[in-house]
Amino acid sequence: MQEFTFAQIVANLLIAARWTVALSAIAFVGGGLVGFVLMLMRISPNRLIKGVSVFYIEFFEATPLLMQLFLVFFGISVLFGWNLSAWTAAIVALTTYTSAYLADIWRGSIEAIPTGQWEASRALGLSYFKQLQKVILPQAVRLSIPPTVGFAVQVIKGTSLASVIGFIELTRSASSISNVTFQPFLVYSLAAVIYFCLCFPLSLWSRKLESSFTYGG
After folding, report:
1. Domain contains 204
2. Number of domains comprising the chain
3. Quick one: pLDDT at residue 214?
């Protein structure tokens, strides 16, 4: 058994937590960019474009994130001969996963806008994209903020699954420290506290936004 002081355990977990935060941020930003495009495709009047986005969203929402991580990490190397690092595979898998859910959240926010808003903006002679830009999206943004912030919590917790492909984040680090200290209760309790400190403020913010960002409020 290797001797670790309490301070050393906490320090190592906090160092690993930086990678959890980094992976979450990259996945959320990348997923947001892809998700916005998917959302536009999802509400497109073109049936082919809409169908492609529906398939993408349904696939990533209907399959476990753990399976997606395995498919990216092992599947790409088998299909194309590319040896992805755990970091790259985790980014790709979490970004696609995040993009599907964000696209659905934002699509739902747009569809929640009364049809009268579309009709009124159409009566003003605005094109489809001008309707979105000037009338629909500004209102939809207010509706989408609370669930978007809430989903950020799920992304942070989802990064823990990246440990199964060898990515060293908070959960993986906790497992490694536990194996050498033989203090699993202490180590995993500290890891849980760190996750709580990362997620709980976002959960509170999401609830606050949900109560304040109501339609017409």
Report:
1. yes
2. 1
3. 55
In a domain, 217, yes or no: no
Q: Can you tell me the distance from the alpha carbon of 164 to that of 35, in angstroms, rounded to the nearest whole number? A: 26
Q: How many CA atoms lie within 13 A of 139 on its CB side?
A: 18
Query: Could you list the residue range(s) of the whole structural domain that residue 50 is in?
Result: 6-212
- What CATH number has the domain bearing residue 21? 1.10.3720.10
Distance of CA 178 to the CA centre of its chain: 28
- Asked if residue 1 is part of any domain, the answer here is no
Whether 38 and 106 have beta carbons less than 8 Å apart is answered as: no
Taking only the tens place, the pLDDT of each residue in 52-100 is 999 999 999 999 999 999 999 998 877 777 788 999 999 999 999 999 9
For 78, the token pair is: 């088998």
Does the pLDDT value for residue 197 go beyond 50? yes
The angle at the Cα of 76, spanning 35 to 63, to the nearest 5 degrees, equals 50
Query: Assign residue 214 a region: left if phi > 0, alpha if psi is -120 to 50, beta otherwise?
Result: beta
Task: Give the helix ranges, DSSP H, for the chain.
Answer: 6-42, 47-62, 65-70, 76-80, 86-111, 115-123, 128-131, 137-158, 170-181, 184-212
Residue range 120-159, pLDDT digits in tens: 888 888 888 888 888 888 888 888 888 999 999 999 999 9
